[in-house]
Specification:
The complex is a heterodimer of chains A (117) and B (116). Chain A is mostly beta strands. Chain A contains no helices and 13 strands. In chain A, the strands form three sheets. In chain A, strands 2, 5, 6, 10, 11, 12 and 13 form a seven-stranded mixed sheet that branches. Chain A has a four-stranded antiparallel sheet with strand order 3-9-8-7, with no helix packed on it. Chain B is mainly beta. Chain B is globular, with a radius of gyration of 14 Å. The relative contact order of chain B is 0.33. Classes of the chains: A mainly beta (117), B mainly beta (116). At the A-B interface, strand 5, strand 6, strand 10, strand 11 and strand 12 of A face strand 5, strand 9 and strand 10 of B.
Chain lengths: 117, 116
């Protein structure tokens, strides 16, 4: 089974509008971390936001927020007030805890976001 | 700049040749990861080190691949007898030892390998 599922290969949003990028995950561990990364066409992976499985509140970082619904195992990224520079590939990822140590990041297949002027 | 550094940025090689990539992590990070990313896909885990110890290897890491981190600082990834299927972006990342919660991985800009 896929650990991380991103069902939107591509998304379009009008500049200054908000957009939600979907992510569902699969784990039986009670302790895990969820991450979103941005990858522009230049190739670098840029860390955006983190949500811990025990965090009570949804994470926010500037224009980014994470809509964490633990029972549904979803961790959607919300970008408010989209900018042209937000056009990029966005990856959802998860780290699980194995034997008291955090494992590597497991990535989804990504969503290509295009912001339209 | 104290980010993760990878060298070279691009490598073109002929099938059957050996290639080696280098990664310099953020200096205070004791964990180092290698990932492979093919076009249009998410990065796939290859291997990771805590200090000089290689703690986990993916089944993707065939016996033609070897990674080292001899002094717990920089790391090298070598691919022997390259095949066209090895063409990909090879990403290195580092993170500090997790205390509470999960530290994000900080990625380098990658080495793009093209096998002709």
């Amino acid at each position: 089974a896929q650990k991380i599922t991103q069902t939107q290969p591509g998304m379009f949003v009008q500049e200054k509008e908000a957009v939600t990028l979907d992510c569902t995950y699969d784990t039986s561990d009670p302790s895990y971390g969820l991450f979103w990364y941005k990858q522009p066409s230049s190739g670098e992976m840029i860390f955006l936001i983190y949500q811990g499985s025990y965090d009570q509140q949804n994470a926010t970082e500037g224009r980014y927020s994470l809509n964490f619904q633990k029972a549904r195992k979803s961790a959607n990224l919300v970008i408010s007030a989209s900018q042209l520079g937000d056009s990029a590939m966005y990856f959802c990822a998860m780290r699980e805890m194995i034997s008291g140590s955090a494992r590597q990041l497991t990535f989804g297949s990504g969503t290509q976001l295009t912001v339209l002027p | 700049d104290t980010g993760v550094s990878q060298d070279p940025r691009h490598k073109i090689t002929k099938r059957g040749q050996n290639v080696t990539f280098r990664c310099d992590p953020i200096s205070e990070h004791n964990r180092l990861y290698w990932y492979r990313q093919t076009l249009g896909q998410g990065p796939e885990f290859l291997t990771y080190f805590q200090n000089e110890a290689q703690l986990e290897k993916s089944r993707l890491l065939s016996d033609r691949f070897s990674a080292e981190r001899p002094k717990g600082s920089f790391s090298t990834l070598e691919i022997q007898r390259t095949e066209q299927g090895d063409s990909a972006m090879y990403l290195c990342a580092s993170s500090p030892k997790d205390r509470q919660g999960y530290s994000p991985l900080h990625f380098g800009n990658g080495t793009r390998l093209t096998v002709t």
